[in-house]
Amino acid sequence: MIATIAVWFLVLSLFLPRIAIFAAWCAGCLPFWQAPWLVKFLMAGIIPRVLILIYIATIMGICAWFWIHLVVAFFVWGVSSVRYTQRD
Predict the structure, then answer these.
(1) The domain containing residue 82 runs over which residues?
(2) Stated pTM of the model
């Protein structure tokens, strides 16, 4: 049996990663990742997209969901950096 992550978590985390992590934590279905709780807490607050990429790679491997999340992460980071440099 192949381990999977809930589809609602994968879809919601594309658009709202912090809310998806919080909702999965409240529902008790946060994917397992063996790391100290402080590391997971800080990553969820600072760089949640990286934490979600780690969850996907650890549990499901390098699959289509991983590549979709990676493309969205680069897109969001790229758009936010362009907006920041245009403000100056």
Answers:
(1) 16-87
(2) 0.81
